[in-house]
Amino acid sequence: MSRLTIALDAMGGDNAPQVVVRGANIARQRHPQVEFLLFGRKGEIAPLLSGMQRLRDVARIVHTDDVVRGDEKPSVALRSGRNSSMRLAINAVHEGAADGVVSAGNTGALMAMSKFVLKTLPGIDRPAIASFFPTLKGESVMLDLGANIYCNAKNLVDFAVLGTSFARTVLGQPEPSYGLLNVGSEEIKGHEALHEASAILREARFPGHFVGFVEGDDIAKGTVDVIVTDGFTGNVALKTAEGTAKLINEFVRRTFRSSLLAGIGYLLARPAMNKLRQRVDPRRYNGAVLTGLNGVAVKSHGGTDTIGFANAIDVAIDLLKHDFIAETRKACESMPRPFDNQAAAS
Amino acid sequence: MSRLTIALDAMGGDNAPQVVVRGANIARQRHPQVEFLLFGRKGEIAPLLSGMQRLRDVARIVHTDDVVRGDEKPSVALRSGRNSSMRLAINAVHEGAADGVVSAGNTGALMAMSKFVLKTLPGIDRPAIASFFPTLKGESVMLDLGANIYCNAKNLVDFAVLGTSFARTVLGQPEPSYGLLNVGSEEIKGHEALHEASAILREARFPGHFVGFVEGDDIAKGTVDVIVTDGFTGNVALKTAEGTAKLINEFVRRTFRSSLLAGIGYLLARPAMNKLRQRVDPRRYNGAVLTGLNGVAVKSHGGTDTIGFANAIDVAIDLLKHDFIAETRKACESMPRPFDNQAAAS
Predict the structure, then answer these.
(1) Using CB atoms, which residue from A239, A242, A261 is nearest to B269?
(2) Could you tell me if residue B212 is left (phi over 0), alpha (psi between -120 and 50 degrees) or otherwise beta?
(3) In terms of Cα–Cα distance, which of A9, A346, A7, A297 is closest to A127?
(4) Which domains does chain A have, with CATH numbers?
(5) Closest residue of A to B230, CA-based?
(6) What is the 3-state secondary structure (H, E, C) of B19-54?
(7) Among A250, A273, B61, B318, which is most exposed with the fewest C-beta within 10 angstroms?
(8) What is the C-alpha to C-alpha distance for residues A292 and B148, in angstroms, rounded to an integer?
(9) Distance (Å, rounded) from C-alpha A307 to C-alpha B41?
(10) Which residues contact A133 (CB under 8 A, 6 or more apart)?
(11) pLDDT tens figures, A233-268
(12) What's the rounded Cα separation, in Å, for the pair A320 and A285?
């Protein structure tokens, strides 16, 4: 495949620009065909690059002093951050200088700027944050993970189109199953928007298999390939799952330290336990996708390390290799359109 | 302490009346001062009791043929289930024949009937389902777990009063810390009702310490003693946590089976692992409390077994021993009252 260029917001995240530059260096080894544009303060980035000859060969620094703060309101960042490292990295995708952008910075600002600069795909009102995660059956996708606090039926239907497109292209599921996250599988339960969305999705024509409502425990079970939900619920579910995984891991750790025999048992099981640790390593699942945009944009966790940031770059490259945007655009064209009348009426 | 009588909906749950009767037999051993009223079909209950002489001495069957179905709409159950085992068990508490009621039946019906018969405590509009769960620091309480899909600020403030009262009496925390579950700790994020409730709770006078907003991962961390949320989010969070715990347990199980050394390691660590299994056993946390009612009502998981149902009975007895209703009534009297003006204005 042809060369790809990834724009990196070198100043985004808790440990920028170190983590970004070192992450790019790992990604460079994995993807010899990729080049990088590093947006940010040259005085801080250049010294980090000095010891990385190979990365220097495929990376170019685009200097800017301006940085979006982690606690900045999205609306403020949009107005006053026009020369920020985040904004210039997104602009590079819009202008064709880069194929995709990765940032570990302020999520709300990244979403607002990406929507403003890249625009949404035809028919999509609001982009959604999607990520894949481990399940009993393999891997599934969930969205929205926090971009949209209030969601109506149209948004949820859009997210179903975006999520199934993600599962088709990146997870390689030709007919992904998907469900709406609710509090009960009976039709009588849950928010009105969920029931309206469910009625529309039952008639939907885009590739995928709608199973109806699913519940919180279906997420880890892998009952469906794609979990569709509003950004409030999705964010709480994601963080609850992360917290619970850490809790159980800590309980297991304490268990192995609780007796001499258990400690010896741990030593014998250690190689296998290390494999498990890798399997559920949150860094492995770092890199959430801003779906619904007319361009590839990936959000890395702000507190991730070098390995995690390299994985977020992997996600962007994966989306590009699988033609995620073109495939999603096609799916949008076959999207259910019962909302057109509403829009015309309003 | 004086004798207690627990009314049991003997026909509620997936494996009724077997699980209910056998669960009562375990509870009877743990609590010699407790008597039981078993509501349901005598023809099914009596044969189960025949081999349990000691239970028969402290249990009385109150016959009724009528049973609330698991999939019955709460409104239908309320209208047409006046002679159901569930309803008669609740009536027994209202009439003073029993001190508390435990049911593994239809949650919505139990909530609707309990609210109708027992009424809510002064100032409480809607009861909430609360349960405790394991955390890194010990145990915490979360509510609402599914009774109220849509919640306004008043409901959330009520739940804070009810949840802290639960933590004070049953978990023995004199000044429980509590937080509102949200998607970010910054004031700019989340639903409007959360912000309104937060402003009121900052001025609140009831015993407890309000820490503001918490996120999904704070649940398992044990950041606060009480997590306050709407019933939709709480139900999704609870089930997501349960699903994730099962996933990690399964991953650990597979890890021990993945190599001979790991298998030997498991044998050595087994006694310690069994202790862990007991610690995170969902049956241990069975028994959700219908808080805000003028009476003790406990909901057991519908699919639980004998041990789980006995634990739900334990929860009811614990609430009675700790004078939960009287303590909660006192807390309600010191509840913030900024809503009175709204009520007067509307």
Answers:
(1) A261
(2) left
(3) A297
(4) 1-118 (3.40.718.10), 119-289+304-346 (3.40.718.10)
(5) A233
(6) HHHHHHHHHHHHCCCEEEEEEECHHHHHHHHCCCHH
(7) A250
(8) 32
(9) 62
(10) A139, A140, A141, A142, A219, A238, A241, A285
(11) 999 999 999 999 888 888 888 888 888 888 888 888
(12) 18
- A137: nearest CA in chain B? B247
Nearest to A240 among B216, B247, B275 (CB): B216
Contact A232, A149 (CB under 8 A): yes
Token pair recorded at residue A332 = 């949008």
Per-residue confidence at A343, pLDDT binned at 50, 70, 90? very low
pLDDT single digits (tens) B59-98: 999 999 999 999 898 999 999 999 999 999 999 999 999 9
| Three-class secondary structure of residue B259 per DSSP | coil
Torsion over CA: B15, B18, B21, B27 (sign): negative
Q: Is B131 left (phi over 0), alpha (psi -120 to 50) or beta?
A: beta
Return the structure tokens found at A182: 């609710």
Report the residue from B73, B245, B261 with minimal CB separation from A244.
B245
Say how far apart CA A128 and CA A143 lie, in whole Å.
6
Amino acid at A256: F
For chain B, the distance separating the N- and C-terminal CA atoms, rounded to the nearest angstrom, is 47
CB contact under 8 A, A280 and B248: yes
Q: What is the mean pLDDT of residues A175-200?
A: 84
Find the residue in A nearest to B148 (Cα). Answer: A190
Length of chain A: 346
Amino acid occupying residue B67: V
